[in-house]
Amino acid sequence: MNMVRKDLIKQFKALPLELRESGMARYEFSAAALAGSSLTKLGAMKYLQQFDATPVSIDFQRTRNSRDLADGKNQKGQRFYRYNEVDVVAACLFSRTLKWEFVFAASKDVDCHPKFRTRIHNRMILNPESWHHDFITAASRMTR
Fold this sequence. Notes:
This protein is α+β, with helices and mostly antiparallel strands. The chain has one domain (22-143). The protein contains seven helices and four strands. The protein has helices at 2-14, 17-20, 24-32, 39-42, 44-49, 94-97, 135-140, and strands at 57-59, 88-92, 102-106, 123-125. The strands form two sheets. The chain has a two-stranded antiparallel sheet with strand order 1-4.
């Protein structure tokens, strides 16, 4: 068993560096599949619609469970943000576009967690109708 592991490590190390880099091939594949590559020219709705077959999502939660049980019996719920803790959420599109572009959504426009209804869902699908290519548009949604 140990010999098999050593052989696999040796084979992996023999690969060219670009094949060993974490995720870069996937990023380049995703960026090449874009019909329109400019977020600001297309606007967030049309831009994100390019990903309808494989929607863009982000993970949005605290990295550790809280030790504070003030929110009730279930400590797991502490990991998810309350709506009143966040005004606007920003999502970076680099993993799909190889560009440091961001889209924004008001917290009231994102889904709630299915189990903890007063908390924001930890897996946010970037729904084109709710996400905007500029912060000001998303922030203006907070007051509506």
